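Quick one, tokens below. Sequence please?
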């Protein structure tokens, strides 16, 4: 299985517009791998795209991806869905006769329901399907899996009930991809052995190098968001061969070099975790 991390950022990109912090200035000067786009993943071969942030058109061009066979969505948040209209590019008015490629859009049950409520997502998807005829919406029942060529995809509902993780299975390889929202989740007991675990880095409540507190203990964000320590605990529970932490943002003042150092620190001090690395844009993961 070959997965490309198109965008390793989170709700805000790095550099964040208007921000003059060290991390954002570094990203402006150096570009990749210091800069980060919105969260999106592409499985080469089956050509499955997971989530479409606002800049998805730029990301597809940057990675020279010329065909998306199917798409699925982890949840309705704008940083994961705002680029839905990218499929309009599969048709232009002067093409004749029309031979539009059709992209299957698989919507897990709660995502399909949320599309009807938030940001006119259902109307936009209907326009792409019925007017432009460039997508086909496939609404899944709860617990229903789907296949794209040789890839089996099982949506797994998270504790934050509007979000899904995806178990990707191809041959004997299992990848668990959690795009966002780890908070309160307990891994189901029937998961197969995980070869690669991709999950959010989450919030750094404490500086992982100095131990100093970054987020005040009474901050309300800690009541709704998972922390870096929570992420490490999930890795301990799931025992994957390799873990990759993504959905990374810049408020904690860590840049690409800092995350490389942190990977090395985890390897030296917590070897029971196995290899843990931090994602970067255009990273290829092959298993």
């Amino acid at each position: 299985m070959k997965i490309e991390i198109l965008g390793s950022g989170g709700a805000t990109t790095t550099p964040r517009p208007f921000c003059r912090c060290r991390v954002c200035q570094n990203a402006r000067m150096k570009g990749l791998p210091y800069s980060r786009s919105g969260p999106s993943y592409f499985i080469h071969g089956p050509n499955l795209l997971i989530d479409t942030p606002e800049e998805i058109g730029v990301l597809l061009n940057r990675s020279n991806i010329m065909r998306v066979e199917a798409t699925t969505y982890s949840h309705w948040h704008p940083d994961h869905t705002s680029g839905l209209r990218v499929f309009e590019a599969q048709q232009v008015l002067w093409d004749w006769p029309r031979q539009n490629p059709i992209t299957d859009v698989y919507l897990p049950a709660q995502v399909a329901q949320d599309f009807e409520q938030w940001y006119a997502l259902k109307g936009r998807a209907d326009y792409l399907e019925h007017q432009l005829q460039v997508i086909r919406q496939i609404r899944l029942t709860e617990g229903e899996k789907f296949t794209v060529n040789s890839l089996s995809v099982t949506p797994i509902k998270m504790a934050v009930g509007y979000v899904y993780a995806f178990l990707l299975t191809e041959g004997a390889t299992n990848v668990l991809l959690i795009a966002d929202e780890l908070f309160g989740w307990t891994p189901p007991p029937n998961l197969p052995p995980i070869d690669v675990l991709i999950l959010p880095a989450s919030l750094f409540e404490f500086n992982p190098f100095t131990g100093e507190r970054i987020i005040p203990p009474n901050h309300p964000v800690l009541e709704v968001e998972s922390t870096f320590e929570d992420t490490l605990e999930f890795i301990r529970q799931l025992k994957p061969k390799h873990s990759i932490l993504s959905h990374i943002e810049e408020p904690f003042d860590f840049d690409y070099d800092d995350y490389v150092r942190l990977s090395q620190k985890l390897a030296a001090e917590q070897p029971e975790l196995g290899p843990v690395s931090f994602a970067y844009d255009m990273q290829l993961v092959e298993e």
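The longest strand covers residues 151-157. The mean pLDDT is 95.
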